[in-house]
Write a sequence for this structure.
């Protein structure tokens, strides 16, 4: 367990450098469609792991009124703040480096939590606790939309396996990052443990480098039981 925690902390620092040095310009297309399709039902939303704010901007353009962004790293939140100021976006931004629970930062119950590109960067002990925290800040029947790397993704098995389905990646573009890529049954168990009921499971898959690199995701919508 000590090795996993140490690898996790190192990975968080690497992610901070990565996001701070390469601002992501565009929101994910699937998530954009989801937010616009449900915007009449969502007034309040949390983007957990908001990074530089690309999805905060999209959510604001969809017309949601109460927008919250939370990230582990201060430097990327500063970038998100600059982005929100540039486009006159009203949102609350909080740093949470696991020293507080979400319900200590967010007092109101929310309609939706977005967790996009984040599940794979947290070891099992961290992500299972995070989803339990989501349930505590959601309204009854509130939604969680999240994506998870699938095991046919090229990153699965790439590097040193330090726990079940948990790797310290060796590929140059991701070197040193901790990636947790569980199978679908284990993902479902995380939701059950958090009292979240899965509504739908979809997939997103594309290749790069002339088909050599596979990017494969489960996209899961769930609601608070």
């Amino acid at each position: 367990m000590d090795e996993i925690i140490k690898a996790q902390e190192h990975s968080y620092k690497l992610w901070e450098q990565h996001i701070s040095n390469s601002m992501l310009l565009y929101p994910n297309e699937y998530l954009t469609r989801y937010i616009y399709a449900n915007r009449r039902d969502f007034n309040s939303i949390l983007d957990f792991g908001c990074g530089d704010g690309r999805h905060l901007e999209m959510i604001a353009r969809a017309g949601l009124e109460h927008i919250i962004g939370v990230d582990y790293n201060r430097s990327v939140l500063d970038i998100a703040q600059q982005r929100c100021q540039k486009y006159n976006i009203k949102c609350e931004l909080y740093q949470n480096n696991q020293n507080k629970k979400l319900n200590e930062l967010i007092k109101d119950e929310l309609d939706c939590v977005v967790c996009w590109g984040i599940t794979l960067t947290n070891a099992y002990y961290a992500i299972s606790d995070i989803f339990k925290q989501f349930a505590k800040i959601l309204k009854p029947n509130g939604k969680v939309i999240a994506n998870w790397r699938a095991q046919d993704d090229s990153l699965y098995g790439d590097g040193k396996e330090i726990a079940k389905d948990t790797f310290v990646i060796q590929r140059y573009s991701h070197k040193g990052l901790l990636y947790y890529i569980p199978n679908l049954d284990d993902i479902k168990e995380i939701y059950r443990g958090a009292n979240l009921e899965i509504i739908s499971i979809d997939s997103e898959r594309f290749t790069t480098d002339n088909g050599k690199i596979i990017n494969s995701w489960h996209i899961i919508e769930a609601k608070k039981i």
